[in-house]
Amino acid sequence: MMSDCLVLLAHGSKDPRWRAPFERIVDAVQGQSGKTKVRLAYMEFVEPTLMDVARECVGQQILHLRILPLFFSIGAHLATDVPEQVNEAKARFPQLEVEVLAPVGEDPRLFRLIQQIVIEILNH
Predict the structure, then answer these.
(1) What is the pLDDT, as a whole number, of residue 40?
(2) Which of 48, 63, 75, 86 lies at a CB distance of 3.0 to 4.6 Å from 52, suitable for a disulfide?
(3) What CATH number is associated with residue 23?
């Protein structure tokens, strides 16, 4: 039985092509997740939303969500919208424990990778 859920939280877009890279990430890591369920959720425009994933998890007795924002930095969504959505989920499902992790853009490995890509482009 799954014990918790890692929610990869992306912005969302009306263009369905935008979802493809995020769906590939979930597909790539799902087999390595062990007892952790991995789900994708979107802030707006498309489903599933964070509330949809919370409802699904509670229905499966998964009561611990860790949210990994797939954002470069903290902006309005992470400062305001995500906390509001988390509070709404906790109000609806008080048994749910929710932890919001730092956005992936704050990971120094991502910074170094982007820097390396830019340098390679400059040198070609």
Answers:
(1) 97
(2) 48
(3) 3.40.50.1400
